[in-house]
Design brief:
There is one protein chain. Helices cover 78% and strands 0% of the residues. The protein is an all-alpha fold. The relative contact order is 0.22.
Length: 319
C-alpha cells in the first residue's frame, strides 16, 4: 500500500512547528511533575494526565469528520492487517515519558529532565533516520547533521556540571534518557500510522489509548502496594498536562514526514530547553544546575539546530 503524497511545508514553518512541540513538552513536564509532587504518586498523576487527554480525543474523534474517517481507516487497516501491531504501540513511549515526568521533574527540574530526553532523542533520531524507519524514508545522515547531534549532546554534558550527579539519584537521570529514546521512536511510528489512517488525530488517539491502558495497570499495581493518594489538589492547571500532550503529539505526527526524525527532534530540543530555562528561572528546582549553566546549555542546543538545518534546506531530491 503506497503512502499518500505529503504536501511539503517551507523549512522555516516545519522547524517552527517542531520548536512549538518542544515548548509544549516542557510545559507538560512541569505540570505533570507538579501534579505528581502534590498527590505524592507519579503513576497516578500520569494516569490522570493521559486519561484527560484520551477523553478529549474521544470527543474530538466523534465530532470531527476527519476523526471518524481516521477511525474507520484504523479499524479497516487492523482487520486487513495493513496496519501492523507495532504501529499501534507508540503509546508505550508516551506512557514512559509522562510517568517519568511525574516521578522526577519536581525533584530534578525541567532542564535536567529535558537534557536527558535530548540525549536519547538525538541518538535514536540519527539511528532511525539512517534506517529509514520514519515516514519520510531514509534521511541522509550527513556530517552537518551529525555535528548538530553532537552539539546537542554537548549541551547535555554542560547541564551535568556543578555536582549534579552527586545530588540526583542515577535512575532520575537514566529514565529521561530512555524517555528520549522512546520519543524519537514514537514520533516516527506516529508519522507512519498517520500515513495509513490519513489524519494525525487518529494516530494521537491510538497513542493515548495505549498509554492510558499501560499507565492504569501500573498505577493499579502501585496503589495496591502503597495505597491511594489521600487527596487531589484543587488547582485546575495541574490537570492540563493531558490536553497539552494531545496538541504536541498531534503536531509531531503531522511534522515528522516533513523534517525527518532527527531534525524534528532537534527543533523540539530548542523549544524544550528555552522553555525549561524560563520555567526553572522563575520556579527553580533543588537539583537544578543553575541559570548560567542552563543559559549556556540553551545556546549550544540552539546552535545544534542551526548546523543541522542548513544542508537540509539546500538538499535536492535524489533521482
Amino acid at each position: 500500500m503506497a503512502p499518500p503524497t505529503t504536501h511539503r511545508l517551507p523549512a522555516v514553518v516545519a522547524i517552527a512547528g517542531a520548536v512549538l512541540v518542544g515548548v509544549l513538552t516542557a510545559l507538560q513536564a512541569r505540570v505533570n511533575g507538579q501534579l505528581g509532587l502534590r498527590i505524592g504518586d507519579g503513576f497516578v498523576a500520569a494516569v490522570i494526565s493521559f486519561g484527560s487527554g484520551l477523553a478529549a480525543l474521544v470527543l474530538l474523534s466523534a465530532l470531527l469528520p476527519s476523526g471518524r474517517r481516521g477511525f474507520t481507516a484504523l479499524i479497516r487497516g487492523i482487520r486487513e492487517r495493513t496496519i501492523p501491531w507495532w504501529m499501534l504501540a507508540g503509546g508505550l513511549a508516551g506512557a514512559l515519558t509522562v510517568a517519568t515526568q511525574g516521578l522526577a521533574v519536581a525533584v530534578i527540574g525541567v532542564s535536567l529532565f529535558t537534557v536527558g530526553v535530548v540525549a536519547g532523542q538525538t541518538l535514536n533520531g540519527l539511528v532511525l533516520d539512517r534506517l529509514g524507519y520514519g515516514p519520510g524514508g531514509v534521511v541522509a545522515v550527513t556530517m552537518p547533521r551529525v555535528a548538530g547531534g553532537a552539539l546537542a549532546l554537548v549541551a547535555v554534558a554542560i547541564s551535568l556540571q556543578g555536582g549534579v550527579l552527586e545530588r540526583v539519584p542515577l535512575w532520575m537521570l537514566v529514565l529521561p534518557f530512555l524517555a528520549g529514546v522512546g520519543i524519537a521512536w514514537q514520533q516516527a511510528t506516529n508519522g507512519r500510522l498517520r500515513q495509513r489512517v490519513g489524519t494525525p488525530l487518529t494516530a494521537t488517539f491510538v497513542n493515548f489509548l495505549g498509554g492510558t491502558i499501560v499507565l492504569a495497570v501500573a498505577a493499579g499495581v502501585h496503589v495496591g502496594i502503597v495505597g491511594a493518594p489521600r487527596t487531589l489538589p484543587d488547582e485546575p492547571w495541574l490537570y492540563l498536562g493531558g490536553l497539552v500532550g494531545v496538541v504536541y503529539i498531534f503536531l509531531s505526527a503531522a511534522l515528522v514526514a516533513q523534517t525527518g526524525v532527527l531534525l524534528l527532534g532537534l527543533g523540539v530540543v530548542v523549544g524544550q530547553l528555552v522553555t525549561a530555562f524560563a520555567l526553572d528561572a522563575v520556579w527553580p528546582a533543588d537539583a537544578g544546575p543553575g541559570w548560567l549553566t542552563e543559559l549556556l546549555m540553551v545556546a549550544v542546543a540552539a546552535a545544534s539546530v542551526v548546523v543541522a538545518i542548513a544542508p537540509w534546506r539546500r538538499r535536492q531530491p535524489q533521482p
